[in-house]
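<purpose> Linking amino acid order to shape
<body> The protein record starts here
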Amino acid sequence: MSALPARADALVIGGGVVGTSIACQLAESGVDTVLLERGTLGSGASGATAGVLRPYFPGDPHTGSLAVRSMAAYHAFAERTGTPLGLERVGFLVVFSDDRQVADFRRTQAAQQAAGVDVELVTASEAVRLNPLLSERAVLAAAWAPEAYVCDPAAIVRGYAAAAQEAGAVLCTDTPVTGLDPDGQVHTPTGSILADTLVCAAGPWSRTVASMADIDLPVTTYPIELLLTDPSPSVRLRSRAGFPDAAPATTLPMTLHASSGLRIRAWMDRILVGMGRPDPDEPRRAWLQRVSHQLSTVYPALDGIRLHRGWSGAFDGSPNGTAFIGRHPSRPFFYAAGFSGQGLCQAPAAGEIVRDLVAAE
């Protein structure tokens, strides 16, 4: 997008939603900022998400607090810049099928609410009212977080990138980092740039980037695949009080089946389905059969529906699923990585934290 300058106050490595958020907030705070992206903006983990912003993370109120902070920032950013982010509130439903899951929710609910997360326990019948595709037999109870939104991740990346450039940042795509010197010299195939501060926001490549600076960032990379059902202008629902026999797919909340990890959400005229990816020794056909079986068990209305490839990618994970956001203790090397597939939900807060850490230098 731009020629590589000779130097920068801050160099951000990674042009996904987290990297562009950081670049935007650094540039808007007056820091001379350059961003390097190995491919196109948003082509890494940001392009492999289900496109849902949610505040509730079972058992993890810390991530929830960052997501709540980020949700407010997204709304403010859209209002301030006029950038359409495709936000549509659908809510987030987590289906519990055993007593232990319900007990865990009750044990952590106060901490979730203290973190600003609006979430409550609902009965099986209430869960089915919220998502009529559910089988009540598959639900013991559920957690309901109404402040969850579908969004357009590509629009968010573009919005942050445009705002960063408006504030003076230089964004360079198709510019992978090939080496990092101790003095802050960063090497790429198109030249080198000297930076006072380095920020690693390279998603699945964060550990590789950090290792170039002789820093061990314990980020793992794991694959993900999302599936799409057959197209349908509406999803046929069993009759429920207050619901028509046929309701548009967009009325569905994002729904997670806690026991299996099965996730669904509406995707235009289809249903988007996620449940990991085939195990290393598992044939793809066997995995698809496993997903189809789980889908029909939890959602009988979808029994027999065909599943197709949606898209796949790689996410960056941390050992406990909580992102690494911070600074190396002895060097001006900052990082925001290991988001475990939830970088979209935390990107604005991550950008604010990194901006404040850099300002404290």
Observations:
- The two ends are 29 Å apart (CA to CA).
